[in-house]
Amino acid sequence: MRIDLTEAIKRLSAGEVVGVPTETVYGLAASLSKQAAIQQIFSLKGRPANNPLIIHIADTSQLYPFVNNFPEGFEQLSKAFWPGPLTLILPIKPNIIFPIVTANLPTAGFRIPNHPLTKQLIKAIGPLVMPSANLSGRPSATLPEHVEDDFGADFPVLDGGACTKGLESTILAFNEDAWSILRQGSLAPEDFTPILGYSPEVIIAKKGELPQCPGQLFRHYAPKAKLILGDFSKVKEADHFIGFTERKYPEGKKIHLLGSLSNPHEVAGNLYKVLRQLDEENAKTAWVDMDFPSEGLWQTIAERLNKAGSV
Ligand code: TXA
Ligand code: MG
């Protein structure tokens, strides 16, 4: 159910959960001051309690009540990328944020989203917690109808149209003496080089090890269909194909085009929509063309497809 800004403000102030657009993906929002609504986010999504939420703010002054100290490079990063698709993990003061938000960690993730409606919403309500607005494990939502598909036609969604980025924020944390990437996202490692003087290392938790970013523990972004990632020997098994506009794929299969090989932003913008289309069309098995470049945003696209295809 589509609602406007006034209605979204009314509902969030009353302690309800509302679907909210951002430039990355749609979020499932509750006011940071409404504990029952925050609890409801976890039950709506089927999200484990040990997976913390990102706090969305409208400007950096909203950090001061919560943040204990600002690691070196914070100023430069926030100036360069906020508002935008960057989440920074920062140490927080004790007993100031509901532990349910942070899963009891001594840190919290913060982001200033870049969407005109969401900025106004946060200015009116104060900080909002928002995980991506999808059932846990499913592809994220980049259109208001995706949120309705997961949470029902009557679920309130502030309609902000299609998300311009289409992939989640990049999550950075400061470890000892450098920033590292805990979750790949809309900003590529090399995007940080002009600001930090280095490209942050992408941290990938080893099997059996607890990841620094708890969300990395779980299966993610997955359609119901089985994905075959680039393995030609299994091409015949697939009834659907996911690929790129400049390539030719076998006739007789349902083809889903992500966009052009020369435009990773277009591909990122279509990725979750295409993964969700597979389910709408009851696809059993989809073959994915993984022969694409390996730099910049393509790294996040590859990571999401690998996660979506992992069983
Ligand atoms: O683009 C985005 O970041 C979207 C939009 C709605 O802002 N939000 C989003 O939230 O992707 P979610 O909940 O789907 O993913 C948040 C990730 C999870 O993997 C969680 O474990 C991690 O952030 N996270 C949150 N707080 C953390 C913390 N204190 N330390 C480490 N990881 C944290
Ligand atoms: Mg998510």
Please tell me about this protein's structure.
It is a single chain. It contains nine helices and 15 strands. It has 311 residues and is an alpha/beta fold. Helix 1 (5-13) runs parallel beside helix 5. The two termini are 33 Å apart. The mean pLDDT is 96. Bound molecules: threonylcarbamoyladenylate (TXA) and magnesium ion. Threonylcarbamoyladenylate is lined by residues 22, 24-25, 27, 51-54, 85, 87, 89, 102, 105, 107-109, 111, 113, 130-132, 168-169, 171, 182-183, 212-215.
Q: Strand arrangement, largest sheet? A: 2-3-7-4-6-5-9-10-11
Give the amount of beta strand, in percent: 15-25%
- Mean pLDDT over the full residue set: 96
Please count the beta strands (DSSP E, at least 2 residues each): 15
Question: Can you tell me the residue ranges where pLDDT is under 50 for at least 5 consecutive residues?
Answer: none
Number of helices: 9
Choose one word for the global shape.
globular
Q: How helical, in percent, are the residues?
A: 25-40%
| Rg from Cα | 19 Å
**What is the chain-wise order of helices and strands?**
EHEEHEHEHEHEHEEEHEEEEHEH
Distance between the termini: 33 Å
Largest pleated sheet: 9 strands, mixed
Bound molecules: threonylcarbamoyladenylate, magnesium ion
Protein structure class: alpha/beta
